[in-house]
Amino acid sequence: MFHLCERIATTDKKAELMEWRQTSSVITQPEIYGREEDKERVVQALIQTCDTERAAVHTIVGLGGLGKTTLAQLVFNDDRIKKHFDLKIWVCVSEDFSLKRMIKAILDSASVSVSALPQDENSILPALRLSYLNLPLKSRQCFSFCAIFPKDAEIEKDELVHLWMANGFVSSEGTMTVEDVAEEIISELCWASFFQDIEKDYLGKVRCFKIHDLLHDLAQYVMGDVCCTVNDEMPIEHPKRIRHLTMGPCARNQIISACTFRSLRTFHFRQTNCALASTKILGPLESLRALDLGYVNLLSKPPAVARHLKYLKALRHLYLRGCSSLVYMPNEIGQLNSLRTLNIYIVGKKKGLRLDELAQLCLRGELHIKNLERVTNAADAKEANLMGKQLDVLKLSWGRNEQSKLLQNVDQILEALEPHPKLINLGVGGYQGMYFPQWMGNPHLKNLCSIKLVDCWYSQQLPLLGRLPSLKILAICCMHNLRYVDDESYDGGVARGFQSLMCLELCCMPNLEGLSKEEGGDMFPCLSEMNVIACPRLTFPALPSVRKLCIAKARRRSGHDLFSREILLSQCPSKTRSPNQVQMDSIHGLGCLEILEIHDDQELASFPKGTLQGLCRLRQLHIHHQSKMEVLPLELANNAALQELHIIGCHNLESLTDQVLTGLQSIEKLKIFECDKFKGLSTGFQSLSSLKDLIISFCPQMVALAEDLQHMPPMLQSITLHELKNLECLPYCWGSTMTLQSLYIACCPKLKSLPISVGWFNGLNSLTVVHCPSIQKQFEKETGKDWKWIKHIPNVDLGENCWVIPTIAASYPDLTFSGTAQNYIID
């Protein structure tokens, strides 16, 4: 069509201020049911009519609320539509319909498309500049500032907003706070496709995004020499013009040179490897407004950087996350009257380093106060005036040391650290008190939606968290004396608590017996996801709302997930390292469960009888690192809803029996990874009539797949065979299936040949063979004796570079937690 790419537009800008609901192409619901047939009809109609000379119009008609927009979103995002059309545009038409405005919206939308334009960059930039000029002035300035980030960098929304605020690009307007205005600009730039690869958090809020390279060029073009990024040893040009400077991996001398640029407003360090110890650092930067020292190695005690920070009187934003060597804060940081964001404050013992330095600072955003064991009385904690700071995120942590054990009034200190009522996220780590303050369960914290309580060993009861009206995420770890999450009594018709809770994580609590002291049918009505780690006495009540459950013995995945933090499991009592038997005996009460993950139980040889009974909606089953497990539960054969089966690290599992395989009629994805004794699938493999994706990797005992794959499932689309070091042969012929689209074979050095039928698969789009020397020689381009059989395949890779493909990497996450001896990390 127009050889352009997707862009979302609207025909009526004023509609943002009206009650009329604007829509976009983004599918906001995690799962959508009952529209597959409707979607298929629309997709086929669009594909079949797109080649005609006359433009076709397809309408979706129905009463309000029936799902017309959702159906359109499903069609818009279907992979076949993406491949078939060069250009897709979503236009939202308001009630105040205007043909002229609609046509203009379509043309404006097309003008911002970048990734598929055939012209060179010089001809693209003017078109992008026109779209840029259509933005409000305020949004233009905010977008062009993004040139401070390197190309293809993942930009954290909160960090960007704080930099905007520090430089005065955004301010409050009427009843809208400065944060509200910034969020509106973020939404506008996302909606207008200036940001891409948008990721959202568990609550549906934008967390991070990227900028297309050409749009980054546009931002840099607009900023000119005002914004500069320095990498390696490249020289810094036009230093007097620079206002915003980013330092990538670079030499120490370049940093010292940059610290002489008196007109600098933003100094942004990004993955800088060198250490900063010079006494000259930061001294002359009197005009600096934003300083980001994330992940910089700050040497000396106290570091030179810290000693000079107190002289930066114009500084509004100070970012210190990841500075692991930083153990001292700048002396008298309270003198920085302009400071508005400070993500970390380390409490010291001497005057000028104590908690009262925060008293006069009007901080916003995120604040993590570390080493609270150095606060000796509640009056000092009260003087910090957290109630007067409009923080969104507050983290309070006590270190693990002898000093923390000697504290007598830690309860009063935490009571004095009561935050502003608009707090959204609260974390408490290493607290040694027996009781939590009342403010933690006060309903006046109406915005509080996430709480993490970590390493509060001596506390026997939680605060009345069930009374928090917006609490959606709750994580509790290493509260060894806790027996119930909800310890309240509901006699006399008192409404149950935790009415909004959606996700619950419980870790390393040996005495936890139940979720609620008084069970009932209306408990935890919105709870959809649970993660249970090393809680050997916990049983599950009937919870019809739970859709996902993860059970782990003593470890779980880390990284980018809901509760990204580090846990020192050696601090957990040894008796928590017991099998998951208790939880598995009570899983059947979770009748609406759709995803079940069982992790790291080295004693569990088989599932208890009846574990999966009644789980008629189970779609995914993940069995990870059950090293003694020899057979899969026969109950799997009776599960008609199961679509994905992931088996990882089950070293005693030798095969999937016919009895299990023949019952998996609905399975679409099968992954078998790092099973040392696994030898094959059995002939029942051919009965997997719905299977689309097969992955087998790191199974050293697998020698042949001749019988397993002789008759392939009729719907199979993708096969991945990876790190099968003793695999010698595949079947001579894979039968008559024509659905196979992708074949990936890597690191199978003993494999001698491919099935002859590979050349018959007309639908095969991708063939990859790496580190399989015999096959690579046999099918070598132009010269190999069997090249003729595969030359018709569009994408053939017979390279020498072996890598773990994303599907395998995603199936094998690092399941280990680590920790620190100083402070419990709750980031």
Give the key terms.
alpha/beta, six-stranded parallel β-sheet, single chain, 827 residues
Notes on the protein architecture:
The chain is of the alpha/beta class. The chain contains 18 helices and 33 strands. The chain has an 18-stranded parallel β-sheet. The longest helix has 14 residues, at 36-49. The chain is globular, with a radius of gyration of 30 Å. Mean pLDDT is 79; it is low at 1-20, 115-121, 555-579 and 800-827.
Question: How far is it from the N-terminal to the C-terminal residue, by CA?
Answer: 48 Å
Task: Give helix % range.
Answer: 10-25%
What coarse outline follows from CA principal-axis ratios?
Answer: globular
Q: How many helix segments? A: 18
Let me know the largest β-sheet: 18 strands, parallel
**Structure summary, number of beta strands:** 33
Mean pLDDT: 79
Strand content: 15-25%
**Are there runs of 5+ residues with pLDDT below 50, and where?**
1-20, 115-121, 555-579, 800-827
Rg of Cα set: 30 Å
Give a brief outline of the structure.
This protein has 827 residues and is of the alpha/beta class. Helices cover 18% and strands 18% of the residues. The protein has 18 helices and 33 strands.
